[in-house]
């Protein structure tokens, strides 16, 4: 049976060793990377147990794994999955490097910069092709492009996390220096729009759920999607190269379960059964089904950008475009594109 654990629980029932996880941060590389290519490598069996971390507290945006778990799809693949809520997009990378999880979900830009720093990992699948992040501002004083950032105070959730890196990309696109904005820490939720209304922020970087909840209060919002500034995949599943080689069959089983969970959501008209199941798990934020449906619809649309037959596949053209953009703003060097992702596992997971 799979399980969901709290941030204070370890993968084996004790406390997570945060000291070990944080030691050295992302600059630490995992030794012995196996240099996998996009296909053509052997997969070892694995233990039948893995741990997975989201890049934030449980929310609708992470429904695909929660539904896969609740509906028994991991169990059907002979896999036990511990699902752990993270604090930000960097934490799954830290936990992967420490060996405390086998799969993490994060933004493509976070994973790519980790690879650039020497971390032997790669994206084993793409969930959200476009960035789920938006520059959120008031319609009375909108941010419609890079030029509107000059001299502004902008809310991000954490330094060097996806929100910060996307802001860096937006600044670079307009030829602006990082110093031309003031960064302030703000939560990625509807409450941060109150800081915009009070004039403390000109805008903040938030996701679809934050936007829909703020609009439900009657707020007049301008939401600028950040994909054009950094076209790397918005959300990817990441594994260490060593784990791909040694636990590949477990990772394939994970992707099979995720795919089945997504199919359950896509086939659920109006998402009624999906919301019912998520309520039994204690998920917050689905009391207003109109808002929840809008959020889920946006997520599903992003998952299916390349069509249902390419669900979870990494798109080489998308990766090439995004990696090139990241190189142009100086956050990546000249590592080959196939150092960053592989479709070998998702190809196997997609076979009938």
Task: Describe the 3D structure.
Mean pLDDT is 88; it is low at 5-42. This protein has helices at 18-22, 63-70, 73-76, 91-98, 108-116, 162-173, 193-197, 208-216, 241-246, 248-266, 272-280, 289-303, 316-328, 344-349, and strands at residues 3-4, 49-53, 80-84, 103-106, 121-128, 133-138, 153-156, 182-185, 203-207, 221-225, 235-240. Helix 6 (162-173) links the parallel strand 7 (153-156) and strand 8 (182-185). It is globular. The chain starts with a strand and ends with a helix. 36% of the residues lie in helices and 15% in strands. The strands form two sheets. The protein has a six-stranded mixed sheet, with helices on both faces. It has a five-stranded mixed sheet with strand order 8-7-9-6-10, with helices on both faces. It is α/β, with parallel strands linked by helices. It is built from 14 helices and eleven strands.
Overall average pLDDT:
88
Tell me the strand order in the biggest sheet. Answer: 1-3-2-4-11-5
The strand count comes to: 11
Number of helices: 14
Q: How much of the residues is beta strand, in percent? A: 15-25%
Order of helices and strands: EHEHHEHEHEEEHEHEHEEHHHHHH
Q: What would the principal axes of the Cα set say about the shape?
A: globular
- Terminal-residue CA separation: 24 Å
Oligomer: single chain
């Amino acid at each position: 049976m799979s399980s969901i654990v709290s941030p204070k629980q370890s993968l084996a029932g004790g406390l997570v060793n945060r000291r070990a996880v944080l030691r050295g941060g992302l600059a630490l590389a995992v030794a012995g990377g196996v240099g996998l290519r996009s296909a053509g490598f052997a997969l070892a069996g694995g233990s039948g147990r893995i741990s997975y971390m989201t890049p934030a507290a449980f929310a609708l945006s992470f429904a695909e794994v929660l539904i896969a778990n609740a509906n028994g799809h991991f169990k059907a693949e002979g896999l036990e999955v511990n699902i752990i809520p993270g604090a930000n997009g960097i934490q799954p990378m830290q936990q992967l490097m420490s060996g405390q999880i086998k799969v993490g979900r994060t933004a493509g830009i976070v994973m790519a910069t980790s690879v650039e720093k020497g971390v032997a990992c790669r994206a084993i699948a793409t969930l959200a092709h476009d960035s789920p992040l938006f520059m959120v501002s008031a319609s009375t004083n909108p941010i419609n492009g890079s030029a509107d950032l000059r001299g502004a105070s902008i809310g991000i959730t954490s330094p060097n996390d996806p929100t910060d890196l996307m802001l860096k990309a937006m600044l670079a696109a307009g030829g602006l220096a990082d110093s031309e904005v003031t960064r302030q820490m703000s939560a990625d939720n509807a409450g941060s729009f109150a800081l915009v209304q009070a004039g403390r922020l000109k805008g903040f970087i938030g996701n679809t759920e934050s936007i829909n909840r703020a609009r439900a209060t009657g707020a007049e919002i301008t939401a600028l999607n950040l994909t054009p500034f950094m076209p790397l995949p918005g959300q990817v599943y990441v594994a260490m190269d060593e784990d791909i080689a040694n636990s590949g069959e477990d990772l394939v089983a994970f992707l099979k379960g995720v795919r089945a969970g997504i199919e359950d959501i896509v086939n659920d008209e109006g998402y009624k059964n999906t919301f019912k199941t998520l309520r039994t798990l204690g998920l917050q934020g689905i009391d207003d089904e109109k808002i929840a449906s809008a959020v889920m619809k946006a997520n599903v649309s992003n998952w299916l950008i390349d069509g249902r037959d390419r669900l979870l596949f990494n798109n080489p053209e998308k990766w090439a475009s995004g990696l090139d953009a990241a190189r142009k703003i100086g956050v990546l060097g000249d590592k080959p594109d196939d150092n960053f992702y592989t479709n070998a596992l998702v190809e196997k997971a997609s076979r009938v």
